[in-house]
């Protein structure tokens, strides 16, 4: 691949952190997170990011430390919980905050207190009729409906979304593998979207490169965006949602599904979705393998990458 000059990369970094729609603009905040939190490398990230009510940032890792917690200023606070959590969601229930997590390599979904205590787990439902055994259940992400129903995106396994009731009893499976609308090719991220007239499931159909709405009964509604670059997760705050795209970009949509910003766009194709990319090839403001993202109370973006070294970004929204 031809070499790209430092000047060109710097110019591209500036362009790649500005909004397409001239509505939102972001600038990279270099070295926002501690390089060696708690005196140790961050380590492999194959998960996501969430933010609690106090503004603390939770990052999942595949290391023995599990979930790492940073202050709103990017300082390491503590670590807790199981390792290898992939997709996660933070919810407040009766004044208490919990983390819901999906663990594909451990074939389970779980609910955690913020001290790491496991409240419950969900394993594969034999009654669904789509699994030979638990090895086929490899959930990527989880969300919870208004009535407490639990929705599990089994993107690394069956490519169905599984619905459980509030008591964790299996209700139904919907979707299934395929390229056509109403099917999934790696349902990788999922969230409850309450910004519309009625609550809907917003699903990242990663390898079909599209974002979709489904209703809470498991019926396909519509495609929101297509021709993306492997949208991996979704995080909603206020009127906006952020989507890390594994192929080197992060997109922000408004509640109408329109793009209001795209940041971190990587011009080097070989660096996109590159788990082994060494730190000496990283560039401030350029994303390589965005896998998780969150929006803080000020509209800034926190981005975590699928990297064996651990790679985090903060894009600060310009007001």
The gist of it:
The protein is mostly beta strands and 319 residues long. The chain has 1 helix and 24 strands.
Radius of gyration: 18 Å
Number of strands: 24
Terminal CA distance reads 38 Å
Q: At CATH's second level, what is the architecture?
A: 6 Propeller
- What's the CATH class, please? Mainly Beta
The biggest sheet amounts to: 4 strands, antiparallel
> Unreliable stretches, pLDDT < 50, 5 or more residues?
1-22
CATH topology group: Neuraminidase
The helical percent reads under 10%
Percent of sequence in beta strands: 35-45%
Quaternary class: single chain
Mean pLDDT: 93
Shape: globular
Order of helices and strands: HEEEEEEEEEEEEEEEEEEEEEEEE
Q: Any idea what the CATH superfamily is called? A: TolB, C-terminal domain
Number of domains: 1
Structural class: mainly beta
> Within the largest sheet, what's the order of strands?
1-24-23-22
| Total of DSSP H or I helical runs spanning 4+ residues | 1
